[in-house]
Known about the structure:
The structure is a single chain. With about 625 residues, this protein is mainly alpha-helical. The protein has 2 domains: about 160-555, no CATH class; about 555-630. About 70% of the residues lie in helices and about 5% in strands. The protein contains 25 helices and 2 strands. The chain has helices at about 5-20, 30-55, 85-110, 115-135, 140-155, 165-195, 200-205, 215-230, 240-245, 250-260, 265-270, 270-275, 280-300, 305-325, 330-355, 375-390, 395-410, 410-435, 445-450, 455-470, 485-490, 505-530, 545-550, 555-600, 610-630; strands at about 60-70, 75-85. A hairpin with a 2-residue loop joins strand 1 (about 60-70) and strand 2. Helix 15 (about 330-355) packs antiparallel against helix 20. The chain is globular. The chain starts with 6 loop residues before the first helix and ends with a helix.
Amino acid sequence: MANLVYLVPLFPLIGFLINGIFWKRMPKTLGGVIGCVAILASFIISLGIFFEVKSASFQGPLVVKLFDFIQSGNLNIHFDFQVDALSSLFLLIITGIGFLIHVYSTSYMGHDEGMVKYFAYLNLFVFSMLLLVLGANYLIMFIGWEGVGLCSYLLIGFWFKNRDYTNAAKKAFVMNRIGDLGFLVGMLLILFNYGTLAYQDVFAKLPAAHTETSSMYNWIALCLFIGAMGKSAQIPLYTWLPDAMAGPTPVSALIHAATMVTAGIYMIARSHALYDLAPMALDLVAVIGLATALLAATIALYQNDIKKVLAYSTVSQLGFMFLALGVGAYTTGVFHVMTHAFFKALLFLGAGSVIHAMGGEQDIKNMGGLRKKLPITYITFLIGVLAIAGFPFTSGFVSKDEILLAVYEHNKVFFYLAAFAAVLTAIYMFRLLMLVFMGGFRGTHDQEHHLHESPAAITIPLIILAIFSLVGGFVQIPHLFGGHDYLNQFLGKAGVPAVIHEGPGLEMKEWTLFGATCVGLLVIFLATKKLFAVSQFDGNYSGFKKVLANKWYVDELYDTIIVKPIGALSGILDKFAEKAGIDGLVNGVGKTVRWGGDRMRLLQTGQVGFYIFIMVLGMVALFTLGFFWIK
């Protein structure tokens, strides 16, 4: 089955071509079916590949050679796919979650006139992400990397008649280009130093971890991390992701759970052999991840847009993943990618169900008391909240506590700060749950009259994701409950270093984390219920709360120190360099020629006597020149 890996991205590509070419003439229902079937076919192949890789007989990694891509002198880059434990796990996440989002979209986007075009973009998005994780070298990864950036632009600005949405799409595109420049420089450094971009060839030329230090490893790792900062929304390149909520809600779910933002995590996990030799870069990854987790969590506390709360929670959770990578817990970071895909897709699709029932309303000031009208949405959303908050035995509890344990063994200060970020996560998620589903309805009478549970195409994906949000963490059970490190062992087949917690007091540490989590969640729930009293909520803030509600004014800061100065400089260059300089020179040449032509044409008078006079003058001039020349 692994030899058929090329079919996994091929099906979405075919779906994109069919829907993209015929979107104006194709019925919306048929476009949705084609889009869903394409991803389902990829998921089935991915499932077969996963079980083949998982089997004891698989000797990986397997590189499937497709064709020669670039040949120039000694440079030979192949268009190859690499199948191993890491890529097969991401294939399941992308195609599995992606399929559920496609099914959900058939109902959510059913009344949109551009539905077929939407599914074409969605298929292209999945194709690009599959290309990113399957590439056997950094160049193929970069092609997929740029592809998901393009698709995010197309989908965030899908409703392009709204200027704010197109501005959000441009913001995402530009900020990702900044990060992509770092990735490109990192690739060029790899190519210059190792003469190849193929993972196996590059890693084979690296010394064993910690046996050699070189600033070059740090520079390469830092450049690659800049790319990851842009794609996975880390400080300072994170502000595009909350604005990406301008797109349809299923797009938000796909970006946040299964595709684009996980690309940076995958890239660093794939490059772990390089990062093991770059301690300075790893430390920076940990610091940036921790700072991002804290900053985004504080902002999420006082957001009134239901999707913005979830967006900042994604930024914060991505910070946890980078923190895990930064302390060397690569498999733990990937583990949280998997569990986060379950509960974040669930939360976004649940939010979409709420928005669908509210007629497009996203402001939680106008919600409340929805649990009676939307029982399935409420129960599944509750499960997602419990999972992201780390409620015991949910998927989020297992993966987040493993991150905290890895950080505790690495740096105690980092641990306490990360634990505080986890506390904030529980607070803002319980707040969101209460303000949306508890208390009385705060919207208009017309909105209340039209409240209804979503159709099956929306609720069935919610139920499936809720189940995985509950049980998805059992692939990595803590030691005090049996200690089955299935995911560590599986990813170890791809060479990803396993996180091994051992030594005296291990179970005591795990019991302490478990107890602290249980007590902490109870206290947080009670405190949140009092702090964000549903009956008194009006969505207006003052003082420090207003600072948080306005996102620490980071966007305004960027606008003041970056956007406006660049705009002013552009105006000066446009006025003086472009119009007065370049345009003035080009237009001046034209005006000079025209002026000369206007003067020269005066010599053509049409009078024969004048022409004879000119001829005589010419002859006299020639004789004079000849006389002096001969002399």
